[in-house]
User: Which sequence fits this backbone?
């Protein structure tokens, strides 16, 4: 029997049911969403960009996810496995997930535990580049004793066994669709990567990278009266200010993501009462990162790889001086107001993980930075630019195109020039900068510059997988198709040992102690320079109901619950 005939039979069966059974699905027409950083792919395993992960979350779903207050809740699974319900083994080396009964992919085939196992194999396939590979750390095997059961066995006790298949960044893929896309073939499977078959409330009907995605309500979605909207238009491009205006002033769009604007601008736009701001703090952190490898184009395929240390930024004293020159309070004031808090930590939340060992960075110290450079041998040249061993302190500083980030660039450039650096600024279209094309020279993973600035966060409340992202093995490069979260190319065996220690440590207090030590190791290397703890900030029209900001997962996590408010 063909998929088409199955769908026809299902449609006929639905028509014979009482009219109330499916009467409400699609009742509210189309909802229009604006992501000014345009999604470039619908496969979160091939992108570390929040925009891509969230767009994909409309279609692809995990076994469990985090709700708006950071609580883990079952999604495709019947329940969260625990010691109490028998889902976790006493030795913490095995977790058993039970799929909900009757789950169907949008092509009408059943979702089975084989799809769960395949997703692990897909992300860990040899020669591939999986952006979320740390979610699968420690898994030795996945058994599928029946179609509803996936038993994950770890190579050692796993006190926090909820990284794989939990959250928008680690959904289940359909084995039938992605079966020929393992390893080096993964980025070549354009049809699957742009039009994944999923279990979510919507299905992709059109995907234009870095432009627009159209979705239709999934007729096989497990909740018969949802989603209320028949279709979704997700438009990419423009900028944060234009996106905010299109929702808060003109109502052209219903929802605008990531309104990275000054508080003065947002206050002006919301004054009319046509829309609302939704916000929430979690783990989103704006940072400057230094490239510890040489990005010179003269190196050809070895540029920005660990084969060549950076000729300037390998100096830890220099990196420290550049951090000391930054006024984080001023950045917060002009950039985000109450939605931005100066920080000296990679990890500021949940509170138990926040270190107090680095708070000295909160005060700008230009004179001390100059003295540190003097002591490190960086002497001012005739034009004021410092030189050491014949090498000029010259930096290319890149980030995504955005008014707030360009303001930050100008200020940081001024401060760095005040202490003797030469700084060239570059901004890149955010759809490209945060994109997934391994052939593009302009992605933040490629990092073909000396310095770059961006924000990132992790899903949920446990930072184990996030902190593992700075392991030596997570450095992007040609061997993993430039996938990996360790874009600064930081590598420290002592840090890797802490990653391994955290993975086998139980008890929240002891885990928090290790995480704070990991945070301090990263911050005190000055390879990653935290700037601001940022709140997630988006907007929606007053007529859009059901929106619940979720800073712990995907902002679109409950799009099946959205509806049109009518007077």
Assistant:
């Amino acid at each position: 029997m063909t998929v088409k005939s199955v769908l026809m039979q299902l449609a006929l069966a639905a028509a014979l049911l009482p009219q109330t059974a499916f009467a409400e699905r699609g009742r509210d027409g189309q909802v229009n969403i604006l992501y000014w950083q345009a999604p470039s792919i619908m496969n979160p395993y091939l992108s570390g960009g929040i925009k891509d992960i969230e767009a994909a979350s409309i279609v692809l779903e995990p076994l469990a996810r985090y709700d708006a207050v950071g609580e883990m809740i079952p999604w495709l699974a019947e329940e969260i496995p625990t010691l109490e319900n028998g889902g976790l083994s006493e030795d913490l080396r095995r977790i058993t997930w039970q799929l909900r009964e009757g789950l169907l992919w949008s092509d009408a085939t059943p979702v089975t535990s084989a799809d769960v196992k395949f997703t692990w194999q897909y992300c860990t396939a040899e020669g591939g580049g999986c952006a979320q590979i740390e979610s699968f750390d420690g898994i030795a095997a996945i058994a599928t004793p029946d179609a509803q059961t996936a038993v994950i066995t770890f190579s050692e006790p796993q006190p926090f066994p909820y990284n794989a298949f939990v959250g928008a960044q680690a959904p289940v893929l359909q084995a039938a669709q992605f079966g020929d896309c393992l390893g080096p073939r993964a980025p070549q499977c354009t049809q699957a990567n742009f039009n994944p078959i999923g279990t979510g409330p919507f299905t992709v009907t059109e995907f234009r990278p870095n432009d627009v995605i159209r979705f239709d309500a999934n007729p096989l979605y497990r909740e018969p009266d949802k989603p209320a909207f028949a279709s979704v238009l997700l438009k990419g491009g423009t900028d944060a200010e234009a996106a905010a205006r299109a929702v808060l002033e003109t109502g052209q769009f219903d929802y605008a993501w990531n309104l990275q604007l000054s508080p003065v601008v947002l206050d002006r736009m919301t004054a009319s009462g046509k829309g609302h701001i939704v916000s929430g703090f979690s783990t989103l952190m704006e940072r400057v990162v230094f490239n510890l490898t040489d990005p010179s184009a003269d190196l050809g395929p070895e540029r920005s790889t660990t084969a060549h240390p950076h000729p300037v930024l390998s100096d830890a004293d220099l990196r420290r001086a550049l951090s000391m020159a930054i006024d984080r309070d001023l950045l917060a004031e002009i950039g985000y107001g109450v939605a931005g808090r100066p920080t000296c930590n990679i990890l500021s939340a949940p509170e138990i993980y926040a270190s107090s060992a680095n708070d000295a960075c909160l005060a700008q110290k230009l004179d001390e930075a100059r003295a540190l450079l003097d002591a490190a041998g960086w002497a001012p040249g005739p034009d004021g630019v410092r030189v050491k061993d014949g090498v000029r302190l010259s930096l290319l500083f890149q980030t995504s195109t955005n008014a707030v980030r360009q303001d930050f660039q100008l200020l940081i450039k001024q401060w760095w020039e005040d202490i003797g650096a030469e700084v060239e600024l570059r901004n890149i279209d955010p759809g490209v900068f945060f994109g997934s094309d391994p052939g593009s020279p302009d992605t933040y993973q490629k990092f073909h510059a000396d310095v770059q600035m961006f924000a990132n966060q992790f899903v949920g409340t446990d930072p184990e997988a996030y902190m593992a992202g700075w392991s030596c093995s997570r450095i992007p490069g040609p061997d993993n198709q430039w996938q990996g979260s360790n874009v600064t190319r930081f590598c420290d065996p002592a840090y890797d040992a802490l990653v391994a220690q955290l993975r086998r440590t139980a008890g929240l207090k002891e885990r928090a102690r290790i995480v704070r030590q990991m945070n301090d190791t990263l911050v005190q290397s000055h390879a990653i320079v935290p700037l601001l703890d940022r709140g997630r900030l988006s907007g929606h029209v007053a007529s859009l109901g059901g929106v619940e900001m979720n800073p712990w997962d995907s902002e679109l996590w409950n799009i099946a619950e959205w509806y049109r408010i009518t007077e």
